[in-house]
Amino acid sequence: MTNKYYEFFCPVKVIAGKAALEHIPFELTSLAAKRPMIITDKGVRAAGLLDPVIAACEDSGLDIVSIYDDVPPDSSTTVVGAIAKVYRKEKCDSIIAVGGGSAIDTGKAVNILVSEGGDDIAEYSGAGILKKALKPFFVVPTTAGTGSEVTSVAVITDAKKGVKLPYSSPFLLPNAAVIDPRMTLTLPPHITAATAMDALTHATEAFTCMAKNPLSDAYATAAVRKVSQSLLKVMDKPKDEDGRLELAQASTMAGIAFSNSMVGLVHSLGHATGAICHLPHGLCMSLYLPYVLEFNLESIREPLSDLLLHLEGPEVYSATPAARRAEASISSIRKLRDELYKRCKLPRTLKETGKVLESQLEAIAKMALDDGSIMFNPREVSLEDAMTILRRAWV
What we know:
9 strands; 3-stranded mixed β-sheet; 6-stranded parallel β-sheet; 2 domains; ADH_Fe/GldA; Dehydroquinate synthase-like, alpha domain; single chain; alpha/beta; Rossmann fold; globular
């Protein structure tokens, strides 16, 4: 499973802890940025999460020139174009994206337009299009799952054409990711659960996929351990700042891991299910993870066995016979999902979502086979294989 050659790249500065937000003004001024724009959504603003960001800037004599708070859950080329116009009109010189995956991806896309020029973000879709550094860009995640704050990709919907446009470039990486537990304290239980399972899936697939490497492994296993140790504690005590910080760090670590090792079939199925049935990404990850691990089992037995140490700790690991550790890892993930179902009814099967029709399974399978993530799955996947997994995930 170990590659003889690999590359590892993560130049994003991580500022983490209980006063991380207060460091934003220093980071901005160190890049000669004086007129920042905040990009966020109405939910984040209504929850009061912008207040400490704005206060930190004002206390340092730095004015937030513009706040765009109307980013939709599935951001589009139209939204990106509209924000870019405001940015130019207000003569902004930097961007602070505050929110989940959609706000962060929108911030990345806006940064392309305001740095490269033009009004059509679709022109820059693809990989390797960008040739130079963009404007100063900072990310403050308000969920602990996507890892977008340390990834070099973004996805924006072209509503007119009905397609999702991918963007990939090392220049999309933020100058800094600001990880502050205050930003996730108000997350509802089901979002806390789904986003943490998103991070767990990122880490697990990073640790078991074809392009894994020793450095990505270190980040992946650390992320798995943090989610395993902290998720249920936070579900039972939502205002636990230490636990929230652990989950936020796990998300960032998992993001660094899969950015450098890629993912696999869980993501292929999840992307297809999200597109066809409009289920949240984190939910799809949680739902498919054990079924895909069972499908891949004989190809990933060694790393999956090692994962038990990080999922359950040294006592359970040492007490489990070596030949049974891979299966025990899958059982541990199933047990975690059962506990989440008890606490917030996070679905464990497609049927439990109430939003997927059995008649849609074939369309999901076909779309999943065309997803780029499948290239890095440790086992070849046929249409029949995908259908078998989906039927198991249905019941």
